[in-house]
Design goal:
171 residues; alpha+beta; 33% strand
Length: 171
C-alpha cells in the first residue's frame, strides 16, 4: 500500500491530512498538538505508529516510526527484535547504514533516542534506535529533511532570543 510515500517533505499540513484521508480513510489518522498520527500502520511484519512532524510554517519536515511500547523485561527480546526489523526496513529503503551501534540498557534514556543505525545522506537525517517514555521501551526510526529542520531550528532560536530580549526589557 502506498499510503504516504508520495508525500514530500515541505508538504503543507492540510495537504498531508487530505492525502492520508484519501489513501487510508479518516478513521486511521488523528491529529494531536500540531502532529498528524497514524496509530497503526503495517510495516512489513511489524505494526508501527507513524508521526508526521511540522515546522512553524506548517510544512512536513520529519517522519517518525514507533514500534509498540513495552516494559523493560521485553527489551532484550521483543523490543530489540522490532528495532532490528525496523533497521532492516530502513536499510532496504535507504541502503547500507554508515554507522551501527548496540546501545546498552543504561544508555537508553527518556526523551532521547539511543542510535542503532545511522545513514549518511546529504539531504536527510536518517536513523533507527531505542528509546523509553514513561518506563515503556520501544524502537523508533526517524527520517528528517535537514534543510527544513535547520530552518525550523533557526526560527526556534530566534523566537527564544526575542523572548529573552523582551524579558530583559520588562525590568
Amino acid at each position: 500500500m502506498n499510503a504516504f510515500q508520495t508525500i514530500p517533505f515541505g508538504a503543507s499540513y492540510d495537504d498531508v491530512i487530505n492525502e492520508l484521508r484519501e489513501t487510508l480513510g479518516q478513521e486511521k489518522i488523528s491529529e494531536y498538538n500540531g502532529l498528524v498520527l497514524i496509530d497503526e500502520f503495517s510495516l512489513g511484519e511489524i505494526s508501527v505508529g507513524v508521526i508526521f512532524h511540522f515546522d512553524h510554517k506548517n510544512r512536513l519536515y520529519s517522519l517518525s516510526f514507533d514500534t509498540q511500547r513495552l516494559t523493560a523485561n521485553k527489551l532484550d527480546s521483543i523490543v530489540q527484535n522490532e528495532a532490528d526489523y525496523l533497521t532492516k526496513v530502513f536499510r532496504n529503503k535507504y541502503g547500507r547504514p554508515s554507522h551501527c551501534y548496540k546501545p546498552a540498557f543504561y544508555n537508553i534514556n527518556d526523551g532521547y533516542v539511543s542510535y542503532m543505525s545511522r545513514w549518511q545522506n546529504k539531504n536527510l537525517e536518517i536513523y533507527t534506535g531505542l528509546t523509553v517514555n514513561d518506563a515503556l521501551y520501544f524502537a523508533r526510526g526517524i527520517v528528517t529533511s535537514r534543510q527544513l529542520e535547520n530552518a525550523f531550528d533557526s526560527y526556534k532560536k530566534e523566537t527564544e532570543r526575542k523572548k529573552v530580549e523582551e524579558g530583559a526589557k520588562s525590568f
